[in-house]
Amino acid sequence: MTNENTLPGKDSGELSGFAALGITGALLKATHAAGFTEPKPIQAQAIPPQMEGRDIFGIAQTGSGKTAAFALPILSKIIALGTKRRAKTTRALILAPTRELAVQIEDTIKILAKGAHVSTALVLGGVSRFSQVKKVAPGVDILIATPGRLTDLVREGDLILSDTKWLVLDEGDRMLDMGFINDVKRIAKATAPDRQTALFSATMPDEIAELAKGLLKNPVRIEVSPHSTAAVEIVQGVVFARTKQKRQVLSTMLADEAMKSVIIFSRTKHGADRVTKDLERDGFKAAVIHGNKSQNARQKALNDFREGSVRILVATDIAARGIDVPGISHVVNFDLPDEAESYVHRIGRTGRNGMDGIAITLCDPSENSKLRQVERIIRTKLPIVADHLGSPDPLRNPAEKNERFEPANDRNGRRDGRRPGGEKKRFGDKPAFAGERKPEGAKPFKGNNKRRFGGKRPAARAA
Ligand code: AMP
């Protein structure tokens, strides 16, 4: 809520809001113009120590407001120092695991820096390298980059990081999942030794704790959401259906107009394409986003979804990472993710800013162990919304009572593959993922452990 005392120019005698955190002048004005009047908890906690020059280790998800939490102190310092850049250098570097997240970060920074003379540039895979080299040639204030393309530019001598005094690593856990961790370490090593560093991660696997130890100096640790716990506003449920039934179950669900803005997660790129094609065959308009799509196609899919010209977005975990589209009413997990923690990220796309959100997971019996892992992580048993396991035709299954797919209050349903009539599941059922491709990003990137800047470049990856 807007607090009059936080508005710039209001002489209240006492500072509050972002002004109390040390944000001043044009930056404070632009921050308010962006609609940010009251700092979010992560901003209130992370901005003051960064203004004092401290390193930050933040456990926070996208949606927490972490972009402004790291961007405002950097902008503030760059503005105070004035224009001072050498050719081919960047004063601040923000590393993001995906192109979409990088674009989103730059958009936010541009809004926050409106009216201040701060230059930004993007360095991403999948788009013209030439224009990026041209953009960084005179030197920039803030560079937002994915690690693969950035490594390329540094190796070729098109970018020098020795003047980089601020380094931000966003979504560290996803960098790890995508096999970027060695690139990240090398990039950090090439920056100024007296730099200030902020590391953000939604979860804290051991490797991230190790990375933090290596990169951060006496960091202030900030945690804004409990570790691996899904947001409370999201109503969650599971629908048991065999893999071959899922298409029909999904189309039946989507016929419900209550599903206004839906993101459907698929474990694999191939699976995402197949789900999209099936939906189109069933008469639904859907956009798809995954690592094999060109940057333009990804951005168009995201824009169409954001603007509401399509209400269904099919995505893989990695491509959807960091996507912040307000007003997503439903998340559907067409299949369970390989890593249970991804479930938390997936469902976190809905239930934002206090709005209601519903997350439905379609589960084949072969995915039961993954479902149990998810439940262990979120410390909740998912209520059963519908159970189609006893019926070859989900539409004729009497177990399907919840027309709007709102989870029932209790869950006395079966979790061990038993059919509604108490009949045991048939062992030897074809595994759901037989013949499917490897999940996107699940395999750590190999072959670059010994690579240094100047070394041979391995095959390109999707960023
Ligand atoms: P982020 O986690 O940085 O992606 O931010 C999530 C969303 O919160 C974005 O849509 C921001 O525009 C919004 N946001 C961030 N900080 C504030 C704030 N202090 N007041 C209102 N909205 C904010």
TrEMBL record:
GO molecular function, one term: ATP binding
Family: Belongs to the DEAD box helicase family.
CDD domains, per database record: DEADc (cd00268), SF2_C_DEAD (cd18787)
Biased composition (Basic and acidic residues): 398-443
Domain DEAD-box RNA helicase Q per the UniProt entry, residue ranges: 16-44
Record protein name field: ATP-dependent RNA helicase RhlE
Keywords: ATP-binding, Helicase, Hydrolase, Nucleotide-binding
Ranges of residues in domain Helicase ATP-binding: 47-222
Pfam families noted in UniProt: DEAD, Helicase_C
Start and end residues of each stretch annotated as Disordered: 387-463
